[in-house]
Amino acid sequence: MKFFISADMEGISGVATNQQLKTPSEYQRFRKLMTADVNAAIEGAFNGGAEEIVVADGHGNMSNIIIEELDKRARLVSGNNRVMCQLEGLDETFDGILFVGHHGREGGSDVAVISHTLAGICVNEMKINGQIVGETEMNTYVAGAFGVPPLFISGDDAYVQEVQETLPNVEAAITKRAVDRFAAELIHPEAAQAIIRKKAESAVKNAKNQQVIALDGPITFEIQFKGSQQAKMTTTIPSVELIGPKSIRFTCDDMITAYKHMWGCVIIAMTATNGVLGSVNA
Ligand SMILES: [Zn+2]
C-alpha cells in the first residue's frame, strides 16, 4: 500500500508563533522538528502496513524538511514551482493521504495557531461550491478526485475540531492546545510524536474502511482576498469574475482543474500585493 503525506509547519510539535518560523536561528530548530514529526508519521504508517510513502513539503518555500534526516524509506517532493501546490506528486495510485503539521483556516477559530488559508498575505476566505474551506478540506477534495481517501491529521486542537466538522472519521493527533493565534500550550515534541506515530499507524491499518470524499460536477471557487488590488489582477485570467471589490469567482469542470486555477489566482494575488512588477528583476 502506498500513502501520501502532505506536510505543513504551523501544526508541528513545539510551534506556537509565526516568529519561530521566520527568525533564521529559530527556523532551523523548527525544520528539525517538522522533519521529526513527519518521520513519526512515516514510522507509524509503515508499522500500519504501508510499503511506499511520498512526502510533499508544503510550507512557505516548500523546502523545509531536512532530506538527510528524513526516514530513508520515504521520498520527498521539495521546492516551490509546483502546478499542484501542496499536492504535487499525488495521483490515483495512492491508498490514502495524511496531513502532518497542518493548521486552521483564516477566520475559522479565534485561537487556532497561525491560522490562515494557503497565503496569509492575500486570502481572507475561500469557498468551494458555497462551503468555506481550509487547506485540509480543499486538499481532501482534490485527493478525492484521484480516488484517495483522507486518513489522518495532526495539529492543534482547534484545527482538529474544525476539520472534523467536515471529516469526522479521520484519525487525529493533537500536538498542542491552541491558546491564541500566536500562542499554544505545548507538550514535549517526543510526546507529540509518540501520538502521531500511534494515530498514523491505526489510520493506515484502517485505510480500506475510509471513504473517498469527492465533489462531483462543476466546481465553483469564490475567493475573498485581503486587498482589492489582489482581486483585480486575477481578472487577467478570462474565466475569473469580480463579484465584489475584493472577491472573485470562477467555475471549472472538475476539482483538479479548479485547484490549479485557484493556485494560479493566489500566485497572481500574492504577486499583486505591492504591484506585480515591483519585485521582478528581469
Ligand atoms: Zn504553512
TrEMBL record:
CDD domains: DAP_dppA_1
Amino-acid positions noted as binding Zn(2+) 1 in the UniProt annotation, renumbered to this chain: 8, 10
Active site: 116
Molecular-function annotations in GO: metal ion binding
Positions that bind Zn(2+) 2: 8, 59, 103, 135
Pfam families per UniProt: Peptidase_M55 (PF04951)
Protein name: D-amino peptidase
Organism whose genome encodes this protein: Planomicrobium soli
Lineage of origin: Bacteria, Bacillati, Bacillota, Bacilli, Bacillales
